[in-house]
Amino acid sequence: AxxxxxxxxxxxxxxxxxxxxxxxxxxxxxQRFCQNCLVACAGCGRIVGPGxxxxxPLDRRPYCNDCMHECLRCHTLSHSTATCxxxxxxxxxxxxxxxxxxxxxxxxxxxxxxAPCGHVVCNRDLEECGVCRTLVCPRCTPACAICGRxxxxxxTVGCVQCGQEYCSRCVSTTGLCAT
Length: 179
Known about the structure:
two-stranded antiparallel sheet, two-stranded antiparallel ribbon
């Protein structure tokens, strides 16, 4: 059962402007807020009120202003930063991502987001189609079982006899593979 409290005894929350008997103190400011307005920082655990925390855009959890840092690359606030393993620049998880092949952290200058899969591949691990020279994702693109070269979807041809797919250089104009 909820206990009722008279307006003289209730305290108005400075966050939502509602009267409440359930009041807590923001550890960042010392202001009193109702329990609905207070959140626990996902980084340090401090209890903070409105205006003293941010919701991280990536993990959607609240972080106190002391735990948030400005990304030097995109200028958004984030609770964590990463460092590019090549140039040592710092950035948020959107700007510095792991290569899907070697798992090194790379910035956009030293890695590339591949279309259409969306994987990030560092410049060292980028592969190109052995036929048309377009860049392909080494995680999603198979190497030709005959010549070993990577090939894009446009240069992938199936053998009419064995049914296997190879690069277009390893399948003849009659549709038969080199094996």
